Amino acid sequence: MADVSPARDGARRVLAARRRGGWPDRALKDELRRGRFSVRDAALCTRLSYGVLQNEKLLDFYLAAHSRLPLTRLEAGILDILRLGAYQIVFLDKIPDYAGVSACVDMARALSGAKAAGYVNAVLRAVLRGPLPQPGGTDVERLSVLYSRPAWQVALYLDRLGPDECEALLRADNGSPPIWVQANPLRGRAEELAERLAADGVEAAPHPFVPGCLALSRTGDIEALETYRAGWFLVADPAAWLAVSAACPQPGETVIDGCAAPGGKSFLTAMAMQDRGRVLACDIHGHKMTLLEKGAARLGLSAVTPCRKDAGVFDPSLAESADLVIADLPCSGLGVVRKKPDIRDRDAGDVAGLPAVQRRLLFNLARYVRPGGRLLYVTCTLRTEENEAVADDFLQSHPAFAPKPFTLPSPVGGADGRVTLWPHRVETDGFFIALFARTGGGGEAV
Q1: Which of 88, 297, 328, 341 has its CA 20 to 30 A from that of 175?
Q2: Whose CA is closest to 273, among 254, 253, 251?
Q3: What percentage of the chain reaches a pLDDT higher than 90?
Q4: 431-441 average pLDDT score
Q5: pLDDT tens string 306-333
Q6: φ, ψ for residue 379 (rounded to 5)?
Q7: Are 59 and 90 in contact (CB under 8 A)?
Q8: Of the candidates 329, 364, 333, 327, the residue with the CA atom closest to the CA atom of residue 350
Q9: Burial of residue 203 (number of CB atoms within 10 Å: 0-12, 13-18, 19+)
Q10: How many angstroms separate the CA atoms of 22 and 27, rounded?
Q11: 6-129: which CATH topology?
Q12: CA distances (Å), origin 206, targets 203, 216, 257, 398
């Protein structure tokens, strides 16, 4: 495809990988690491890939209104090209419409010949002429199409937030968050990190309320940066820092992170402890031990000890041994759809069994908390069944534990033992954070 821009061709490859069952974020990273992108092309490839995945249902709604053939009859690659073209027309103001259409026609010609190119040209020019149809029906039906989310997810948020906030959340979920990083205090201050990044052409802006957190832009391949390789920062959403901060880890403490990989909260915890004490970073998968070891070594965190361990199987040697236990447990991930758009396609049946898994893991990990210690329960989802309901069940069955109030920076503020971080309210990933204190003996369930 010599006549096709690298950015658009890369986005097409990401969409093709998703159709083959691959993870879009992994496919995008692979594309960006091929070394053929300028910083500008890398940004455009990312925007196109995620933009189409975030708006697929809406784009298909627009295309179906202007296609003489049902979309189901189109070659999968041609449909992906049409989606890329429609996304550029509808959502990207800085790219001339004729350039976007022309590039998609070239891709279609290279992929399937002149007939396919003519068809893509006709459909995209019809979309360009408009008008674009508007989704109708009930609030659930309209918002489901408008924000390309399954109806069950829209209904969940409508019930909790009402129409206006529900739409604000869905709009935020379709946004393009910056790359957030947390400065490693063992290497230096965030201001010095920003200066080093600027020397490499990377723009860094401080987070409005999370100390040491920077938003990066114009990074290219972030892992190729000297500051990354030298361990000056950890890529982490502000929500992760807020979760760890709620537990207030102290130097010299013993911490167990029950489901640690890829290691973000273990590393943030060790940083908060000034790398003094012990953070046992556990995970059930042996191959993830290497990720944890490499991450700790890059950041210079000697307090972190990777350990292969099943969070659901009791280890008597760890009983009542930890000042803090972190239970960052498997969940539906609905709070991070901005960064992992394939999650939005999850069926309600796929997540129905998660609360039972979370209870089993949380109940076991609680046995490692010493009297007077803390237990931190964290998810990156916004479902009540996985959050408040699990926390309530835990407290009802564990009388030795009680909610432990904590205070986070404004606008989050004080919390009576639990808080939900909503992306449209505080511009972080969607997280649920619950902190429990073990106030007495008998830490097991009754």
Answers
A1: 328
A2: 251
A3: 81
A4: 93
A5: 999 999 999 999 999 999 999 999 999 9
A6: -135, 160
A7: yes
A8: 333
A9: middle
A10: 7
A11: N-utilizing Substance Protein B Homolog; Chain A (1.10.940)
A12: 10, 9, 28, 41
pLDDT band at residue 35 under the 50/70/90 scheme: low
Closest CA relative to residue 239, chosen from 85, 378, 111, 375: 378
The topology (CATH level 3) of 179-235 is Alpha-Beta Plaits (3.30.70)
Whose tokens are 């957030």? That residue is 180
33 pLDDT higher than 90: no
Read off the pLDDT of residues 423-434 as tens digits, 9 standing for 90 and up.
999 999 999 999
CB of 191 closer than 8 Å to CB of 232:
no
Does domain 238-438 correspond to CATH entry 3.90.650.10? no
Catalytic site positions: 380
State the residue for tokens 């189409």: 52
Residue ranges, comma separated, of all CATH 3.30.70.1170 domains in the chain are 179-235
Structure tokens at 113: 């010949």
Place of tokens 């509808």: 90
Q: Minimal CA–CA distance to 282: which of 305, 313, 302?
A: 305
Amino acid (one-letter) located at 403: P
CB 248 within 8 A of CB 224: no
Tokens representing 114 are: 């002149």
* Span(s) in the chain for CATH 1.10.940.10: 6-129
